[in-house]
Design a protein that fits this description.
- By secondary structure, the protein is α/β, with parallel strands linked by helices.
- Helix content is 10%, strand content 23%.
- It is built from three helices and 25 strands.
- A 13-stranded mixed beta sheet has the order 1-2-4-6-8-10-12-14-16-18-20-22-24, with no helix packed on it.
- A hairpin with a 7-residue loop joins strand 1 and strand 2 (82-86).
- The termini are far apart.
């Protein structure tokens, strides 16, 4: 045989070997077909990732010029497995097929900003490698299945409902949880112990913030629970969570806040927003002793009495919103001499001698009659 024949045969062998190594496992192809078939064909635009999912080609075979151009990633193994599905926000509408559980090596699933509906299939819990589940901004309904292996879960902006179960605490690997803007009710459940970030904004959670729910959360740095129906007293232990940095409890129905000074000035708390509640009593002076606190909002509550001078001496404080309360007396002069000046508002209170030259005093104060009524008919001091 000629040398050219052997050379041709060698090239053909290399090509066949490369093709064989890049073939997707049959069970993954089957699961991908089920996934796509659960989506309404009329919701798949011709320019979208799913439109390129043509199963006449192998999903993991390179190059991806016309087919499977985007939306998934594959392993380098032989055979190949699907490791990630990240769909584009093309307005896909359909259900999430339970047969997606056939993607045994799937680590990341992101269907955000589409129009998926129906329940989140419990079969997701059988995926041994699934770490990140992002279903944000869809129309999923029902409850949350057990997803114990996840490190990140974002189900925000859906139509999920029901009482959050204490079984959430079984998600021991979970670092980030976002359930904001759903229809969850009831109290805050016992939370996963290794959380770094918690967001359940814009639901209908009720009851108080219980210590048992936050027990063992030594790494929790961000808490976003605004726009719910939480009530009662915010207890002093809460602000002393050892890694806490940002807190938003605005737009609830809290009536009281108790706060202790951090021991040895040891705290990472940077920003607190508990505005638009029903908090009564004096302005909690101990917030001024949190060493790196830079933003404090207590606007539109029912606070009374003077503004403690300690706040005006706090060098780290950059934003202070106390408007919409019944604070009286003269604001500390230190607010108006510091450079750069503190931003925010002290307006809509019962303060006197609040200089209109300062941004803090641009909003006018309450009328004398309203302030006298708030203080039992006594003139504001």
């Amino acid at each position: 045989m000629s040398t050219s024949f052997f050379f041709f045969f060698f090239l053909l062998l290399i090509n066949l070997t490369f093709t064989a190594q890049s073939l997707t496992h049959p069970s993954d192809i089957s699961a991908l077909k089920s996934f796509k078939s659960s989506i309404k064909p009329t919701s798949i635009p011709p320019y979208s990732c799913l439109a390129s999912w043509n199963f006449t080609s192998d999903p993991c075979s390179a190059p991806h010029i016309t087919h499977f151009t985007c939306g998934l990633s594959c392993s380098d193994s032989n055979p190949s497995f699907i490791t990630q599905i990240t769909l584009d926000p093309a307005g896909y509408s359909g259900t999430l097929s339970p047969l997606i559980s056939g993607l045994t090596q799937l680590s990341d699933l992101d269907l955000s900003d589409n129009n998926f509906f129906g329940p989140i299939p419990p079969s997701l819990s059988s995926l041994p490698k699934l770490n990140t589940l992002t279903l944000r901004s869809n129309s999923f309904s029902g409850s949350i299945p057990n997803l114990a292996r996840l490190t990140s879960l974002d189900l925000s902006h859906n139509s999920l409902s029901g009482v959050l179960s204490n079984t959430l605490s079984a998600l021991t690997k979970l670092k980030r949880l976002d359930l904001s803007f759903n229809k969850f009710t009831g109290p805050i459940p016992k939370l996963p112990p290794n959380l770094l970030e918690l967001a359940i904004k814009g639901n209908s959670l009720s009851g108080s913030i219980s210590k048992s729910a936050f027990n063992e959360l030594t790494q929790l740095s961000v808490v976003e629970l605004s726009e719910n129906s939480l009530s009662g007293t915010i207890q002093p232990w809460f602000f002393l969570l050892p890694s806490l940095q940002q807190v938003n409890l605005a737009n609830n129905s809290f009536t009281r806040v108790e706060i202790w000074k951090p021991s040895n000035k040891n705290s990472d708390l940077v920003a607190v927003d508990i505005g638009f509640n029903k908090i009564e009593g004096p302005l909690p002076v101990n917030f001024a002793y949190y060493p790196v606190l830079s933003s404090l909002t207590l606007r539109y509550n029912r606070l009374r009495g003077p503004i403690p001078w300690e706040f005006s001496k706090k060098a780290t404080l950059k934003r202070l919103y106390l408007d919409g309360n019944y604070l009286n007396g003269s604001p500390p002069t230190g607010f108006f001499s510091v450079q750069p000046p503190v931003s925010g508002s002290l307006g809509d209170n019962c303060l006197r001698a609040c200089p209109v030259s300062s941004e803090l005093c641009l909003k006018s104060q309450k009328s004398t009659s309203i302030c006298r009524q708030a203080y039992g008919g006594k003139p504001r001091s």
